[in-house]
Design a protein that fits this description.
Blueprint: H1 3-16, H2 18-21, E1 35-36, E2 42-46, H3 53-58, E3 65-66, E4 80-87, E5 96-99, E6 107-113, E7 119-124, E8 141-144, E9 152-159, E10 169-172, H4 173-208, H5 211-231, H6 233-238, H7 243-268, H8 271-274, H9 276-296, H10 301-328, H11 334-355, H12 363-399, H13 413-430, E11 434-441, H14 444-451, H15 453-470, E12 476-479, E13 484-489, H16 495-510, E14 524-531, H17 538-551, E15 560-562
Helix pairs in contact: 4-5, 4-12, 5-7, 5-12, 7-9, 7-10, 9-10, 10-11, 11-12, 14-15, 15-16
Length: 584
């Protein structure tokens, strides 16, 4: 009871002083919300955190100082920040609340005198179960009494493990309802995006057996839980009855998130295959982060922030180094990963600056990480999809080396023989004709003499391109040797069609090639057979076609040969001694 007149006297003296009249008067106007306390209140930091509200109100030697909207109060663990303020007479048509827009504050206690002269207390913060708050909310929100006739005085006690800079503001019930609907929509979209990315990454990790997706799914899940803690969603909906976890999760979950992100970076750039030593360094730092997260859950509060700040920059610096290192060694996805992770790293640095008391709480400190994550998620998901596609193509190439010619992409001789057997069987079953062709390049040496070795090496690739453009989708083109190609033409296919296809292939190969000399063209010879009319034994057909091409002399101007026609007799050259017959 002794403290009541002392508090009233102190407040009246403060309001009557010239300094108080120069301050911004607290005006609870429903048209201008939220209403900031600004410099209307007074603050004092209790170094011992042992005083009660009665003792604070009774002491006359406390060096109170005006509050400020952008003030950073240099308090630490084991200290208490006291703020006194008076709510002037205001219309009481609506209910008003004092809002502390900082979900991670340890504890906030609002004191006011009741009619019996006793101090009534409302408590909120991480050390209090959310379902026991005066108003369960994402951050501390406590109702205040507003009178249209007399002012109401309050004492606010705040405890935090590091510097406190959240602006104290007043909101009405109608404004609070409207703003929460807007915030709920934004956070719903954000956490929906987080959940979608986590589900897609998990499914991709299981289906593709890619550890990068698995680590990213873990990192995204921990990111979502971290943001749930930072925004107050976790304490409100996920663990409302666990004040201990609500307090330690603000440092434990980010530590685990950084460790998972480090392992994701290592897997995404294939660091174990590039540098086992660097991979082990990242894995060691990630394992240390897991152990540190366990330690953060059990160490005293005053040591928790120091340990967290000690670790938080190490994984980020190491991840940047690993991405730059792999980028310089030819990894095509490393620079894009660096670009995708940069917004989150920048937001994390800004948040650390807030915890260190370097910048006040504002829009970027509260929502910068969510914005960074929203930018990062689509970039990383696109990079992972492109990376998976690239890996699948490489796997297909490696697995197809025994079936595909790596230089041209055409099937090889083994597959060509298999398909020829199946084509002959199909033709016999369906009673139609198909065709098998062998195509030889006959001017490789001349091309090398006239246009150089590079042109001669490139010539088979150009021929393969022309064969693919000539063949239909149901046909097959193969490279059988350095200068020999094969083609299977599915029937029904008549002799007249075969007679026109061979010359067309020869003509296509004689057309100039883009980027090469106009005279640098491929001269080819084509030998073909109709199946099953001209044979049903695949190996025998190929042997006979090879013999037919080998029987053609270099002076023969004919370019297309059909199996079964007699080769021209070799030309006989006369000698000087050979007598010329004289007709009778």
């Amino acid at each position: 009871m002794i403290a009541v007149p002392a508090l009233v006297t102190g407040l009246l003296a403060a309001l009557a002083s010239p300094t108080a009249w120069s301050r911004t008067v607290l005006d609870l106007d429903t048209q201008q919300q939220p209403v900031a306390l600004q410099d209307w209140g007074d603050y004092w930091i209790d170094k011992t955190a042992q005083l009660t509200p009665s003792q604070v109100a009774a002491r006359q030697d406390i060096p109170w100082q005006p509050t400020s909207k952008q003030a950073i109060y240099p308090m630490t663990a084991g200290q208490a920040l006291w703020i006194r303020f008076t709510v002037p007479p205001a219309p009481d048509a609506e209910r008003w609340y004092i809002e502390i827009p900082y979900p991670s504050i340890n504890q906030a206690s609002l004191y006011t005198l009741d009619s019996a002269g006793q101090w009534g207390e409302q408590k909120a913060g991480d050390l209090v179960a959310v379902n026991k708050w005066p108003v369960p909310h994402r951050h501390p929100l406590m109702p205040i009494a507003v009178s249209a006739e007399v002012p109401t005085s309050y004492l606010l006690r705040l405890e935090n493990g590091h510097a406190f800079s959240a602006p104290l503001q007043f909101v009405s019930e109608s404004y609070l309802s409207h703003s929460e609907q807007r915030v709920s929509l934004i956070l719903g979209i954000f956490f929906g995006l987080i959940g979608l990315a986590a589900i897609i990454s998990t499914i991709s990790a299981l289906s593709l057996r890619d550890p990068a997706y698995g680590f990213y799914a873990l990192a995204v899940t921990l990111t979502g839980l971290t943001q749930a803690t930072v925004t107050g969603i976790g304490g409100l909906h996920l663990w409302p009855n666990a004040p201990w976890w609500n307090d330690v999760s603000t440092s434990v979950l980010p530590t685990l998130e950084l460790a998972a992100t480090l392992m994701f970076v290592s897997a995404a750039v294939s660091l174990p295959e590039r540098s086992l030593r660097l991979h082990r360094s990242l894995a060691g730092v990630a394992l240390f982060g897991v152990l540190l997260a366990v330690a953060l859950a059990i160490v005293p509060q005053e040591q928790r922030m120091r340990l967290f700040m000690f670790y938080v920059f190490l994984p980020q610096v190491l991840a940047i180094y690993a991405l730059v290192w792999t980028w310089r060694r030819g990894d095509r996805f490393a620079p894009w990963l660096l670009l995708g992770l940069f917004p989150v790293m920048a937001a994390a640095a800004y948040m650390m600056a807030r915890n260190a008391g370097l910048v006040p709480i504002g829009f970027m400190t509260q929502h910068g990480t969510q914005i960074g994550v929203a930018i990062e998620l689509p970039i990383i998901m696109v990079i992972l999809m492109l990376r998976s596609q690239h890996r699948r193509e490489n796997t297909r190439r490696i697995q197809g080396l025994d079936r595909v010619d790596p230089a041209t992409g055409l099937i090889n001789g083994h597959v060509f023989a298999e398909r020829l057997i199946r084509m002959i069987a199909r033709s016999e079953r369906l009673r139609h004709q198909s065709a098998v062709m062998l195509i030889d390049i006959v001017n490789t040496e001349q091309t090398q003499r006239d246009f150089g070795r590079k042109a001669a090496e490139e010539l088979p690739l150009r021929v393969a391109e022309r064969l693919l453009s000539t063949a239909r989708e149901i046909d097959s083109a193969a490279r059988l040797s350095a200068r020999r190609f094969g083609m299977l033409v599915e029937g029904p296919f008549s002799a007249e069609d075969a007679a026109t296809l061979g010359p067309r292939i020869v003509a296509r190969c004689l057309m100039p090639y883009k980027g090469m000399h106009v005279d640098c063209v491929a001269q080819v010879r084509v030998a073909y057979a109709l199946v099953p009319d001209q044979g049903s034994n695949a190996q025998g057909l190929l042997t006979r076609l090879e013999e037919r091409l080998a029987s053609a002399s270099s002076a023969d101007k004919k370019a297309v040969f059909i199996l079964g026609e007699n080769p021209p007799p070799p030309r006989r050259h006369r000698t000087r001694r050979e007598a010329v017959p004289i007709p009778d």
